[in-house]
Amino acid sequence: MTRSKRDGWFAFLLDVPALVMTIAFILIPILDSVVKSFQDFGVRNIISGKPGVWNHFANYLYLTKTDLFGRASATTFAFVIGVVVVQFLLSLILALILNTNLKGARFLRSVMMTPWVVPTVISALIWMWLFQPQYGLVKYLVSLATFGKVTDFAMLNSPSTALGGVGIAALWKQIPLMSLLLLAGLQNVPQDIQEAAMIDGAGKWRRFLSITLPYLSPVIKVSISMSIIENFKQFPLFWTMTGGGPNNATTTLAILSYREAFVSMNLGTGASITTLWMVMMMGVVFFYNRLFRIQDMG
């Protein structure tokens, strides 16, 4: 066996564990979920161990007859768009600040990663305590800011503000990682090009648009794609902080799928929601990457 073939087989053997894990814990469960989405699979099948009965598109037709799926889809998209846009803007501002000669910037880079390493459920509990309507810190700050006029501020208990409360918790946890990625991209922007543009009379804003952003483009593409996927599949924050309430104001596709499959014990309907949810997420990421590619070509 030649050296190149030995290296090829060695590389393949190194990849085998990752391939097995991917097939066993990602591809097979996805295929199983898609198959169940076309079946009548409920608690009787779970208890008896019998396979589900094929019902064609009955599960999907059921979703069209209820407004819960439409509302959950709208809530999911609103959450993803809001969090991703705000996260990118705040992360970019923070990365630009940390990229300067600010005193203590190195220490701040280390400290700012604390929210990201905290488990998601713990993050949810922290923000539940902060938003607590009786003794929470947020209520106290709102009372101070309004000079005592607002004393019953309960962000997670109101349908109009609950989604924003979960969004704040998501931003607190996710901004550090995106900031670090953008900071790494900023530090790879060639300084000689910046200096040449400065000599030619380009201002800070012009240098940022014409030099910094184009060099940041690959990092922006990856970081926003990661954020879209992360927030599309966000479940622990919602389930821990609101459970989908109040009045289904924070019921996303993740919450709705869990309720149908494991609360109502209707795995077929839950699988159909999960399948559509996955297709939507793939469509959004594909559209975003396509839009970014067209922009790069232009």
Description:
It is globular, with a radius of gyration of 24 Å. The chain has 298 residues and is mainly α. The N and C termini lie far apart (48 Å). It has helices at residues 3-36, 43-48, 58-65, 68-98, 105-111, 114-117, 120-130, 137-145, 162-186, 191-199, 204-232, 236-241, 253-263, 267-297, and strands at 39-40, 53-54. The chain has 14 helices and two strands. The mean pLDDT is 89.
In short:
By secondary structure, the chain is mainly α. It is 74% helix and 1% strand.
What string gives the helices and strands in order?
A: HEHEHHHHHHHHHHHH
Largest sheet: 2 strands, antiparallel
Secondary-structure content class: mainly alpha
The percentage helix is over 70%
Q: Write the CATH fold name.
A: MetI-like fold
According to CATH, what is the class?
Mainly Alpha
Low-confidence stretches at least 5 residues in length (pLDDT < 50)? none
Radius of gyration: 24 Å
Strand line-up in the sheet with most strands: 1-2
CATH superfamily (homologous) name: MetI-like
